[in-house]
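Hey, quick one: can you model this chain's 3D structure?
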Amino acid sequence: MTTGRALVDEISALQLPRGAMAFWWLGQLGYAVKIEQTVFYIDPFLAPGTWRNVPPLMDASEITNADWVLGTHDHGDHIDRWAYPRIAAASPEARFVCSRAASATVLGLGIAPERVIGTDEGQVVQDGDTVITPVASAHEFLDHDPELGYPYLGFVIQQDGVCLYHSGDTTRYEGMRCKLERWSFDAVFLPINGRDAVRYAHNTIGNMTYQESVDLAGELKPRLTVPGHYEMFSSNSENPQLFVDYMRVKYPERQVWVGEHGTCVIVPPREG
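Sure thing. Here's the predicted structure for all 272 residues.
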């Protein structure tokens, strides 16, 4: 496991062929992703605290290589109020993408308005070869504000022939699969921690179970599925081996990655 400045340097130094991508799991549902020379930090959760089972992999002020920072929704383990200002200072060219509902929070952290892109389902963010398409997520409920739109988002990222989907925190909802089937994914990143009455009663809003995530991946047929959101908090966890075993018997042709934080995983270009 690589951590600290060495991890940032590893991400910056990695050279990838066209059509390949690399990712590093940062913990919870946070990942650093590299496509060509573009570096995305998706839901980086780096605030220190004794309540974490996994310490932050780096200090946010060490992140000098961010091009894009994507926050799927306004919860502290996804839009990290401690980390965001530090990343913004260390990576002055980085842009921050979030829902319109969360943009006030991000702006309130002192990040310049021209660097914050508040978006919603149906509002594609594009810069050159980078295309970021928001897709509504249902964090227990498919909430929608008539003025601000969906507060919970997933993101489809396309660049350099690569296509990935990060769902953010979500349960499955009617029409979700149909929205996503228009893409052919190289990788999908899905939560598996599930939900129940005890957690909901304590305001711990739930996600897909490992079975639901397996079925969504089995239907979308990505080249690689990456489960997350199962290890950070003891009261809101799941055993990823259950996900692996269920995928193996139900969709044996699908590839899964479960591994250590801070490990470089390369998804090679598609054959042909």
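One thing worth noting: The two ends are 33 Å apart (CA to CA).
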